Here is the input.
Amino acid sequence: MKAALLALFSCVAFAQTFELADVHPSKPGTLRQGGFIPGSGRMEFQGLSLAELIQFAYGVDNDMIMNAPKWLGFNQYDLVAKGRRGASDEGMKIMLRALLVDRFKLVFHTDLKPLPAYVMTAGKKINMKEAAEGSDSTCEPKGGGEEGTITLDCKNLTMAVFAERFHQYAGGYLNHPVVDQTGLKGGYDFSIRWTGRQVLDQKKEGTSFFEAAEKQLGLKFEEKKAPLPAMAIDSVNETPTPNLPGVEEKLKVTATEFEVAVIKKSPPGMQQSGGFKPGGRLEVQAISIKDLLPFIYDVDDNMVVGIPKWLESDRYSIIAKPPTEVSIDALKVMLRNLFTEQFKLETHKEEQQVQVWVMTVSKKGLKMEKAEPATPPGCKGAGVVNDLIHWTCKATTMKQFGEQFHRYANGYLDHTVVDETGLTDAYNFELSWTPKGRLNPQAPSADGAARDPGGLTFFEAADRQLGVKFESQKRPMQVIVIDKASPLVADQ
Here is the structure.
């Protein structure tokens, strides 16, 4: 196990590299977003700190990065890179490691440190089937279960891959790295179902991931400190090396339609499943078109109005292959065009009164300090510590605060945030609150404050710690109006 983990940090001088890459500092206020479509060969990130890029590339948690300069978690960067189409997820991460070494001159060494972890061991009986040799290693979600349950159907997963992936899939439970001490060799096929942490904490009933893993798979998890390879930063540049001439133009995606696309109505009873396949192909089953509309228009759920009932109730299967490597934004355009063609979808934009969170200064006054002009902007999260989410932000305006925390605290800020503080300066602050799923399920008051005395809601935290108040009100906002949509001809 130690050898496998240490290999993760080995020299990347001979690793596969991206063909083209655009790396530059983000514009102030850029929202954190991005990723890559599996198999597409293209990676895009906006507004990520170098610490977050390192965590993604090397599969490490924030507390495994040592000796980091202060700016590592705050300065934000945009990154667009093109590699080989069909490259595996691990291959894309290896290319990102090489890119960080090349463009930021990242130099580090590893030290084994006792760090918080979940140690995974095998129980008396293993309830997993040995996988056929040479089969693809996949994990696909399955729908159709009770509300709040998560079901994954996995094929040919080694325990090392299990440890890495389920640290992400079950992050509400596995909030530390997972160390494989099962001693099991080869890949396994299995299905596992558990209740999401938020739902379990709210309803106080269901199956935790730990119970599911032990009863359904025969795997046990124990939280304790374990020797893990900490990443000690020796040197790293704050400013990346310049892009090659013309690289931004070469990386532009011009495709607006899928090369091949088929939409069919799913048979009754089919479970929702699917995702992206090798090569960037999209395959989903039994999905509601209504659920995809906020994604393709890049808006909140309540910003798409006039949706026919059949777009919500009917379930469709979609198979679509892009013509080349595509970005997530390009994929949204392709899906919009596909739905326009297949469902005769017609829309327009207009202002309507919709529910939003209005942000104002509390009656007791502001409790944040103004940032010095030279302070680098950005926000750094420390995860969940002692049942509290903690964020530190520097040189952040109120407009940026609303945009960023609409994502960071979306369990509370489930609608667009409108800044009515009247403040134009940038501020430094720290904010800690209880995740919504860990509060008792009691109805909030009219201003959004929870009545639960055992936790601190985001709204209470913002008021007490920052002097910022949030109220749920209606404001005129631009929405997407569905003017016309027709079921597929075969469905009528």
The two ends are 57 Å apart (CA to CA). The chain has twelve helices and 24 strands. Residues 1-14, 441-446, 448-453 have pLDDT under 50 and may be disordered.
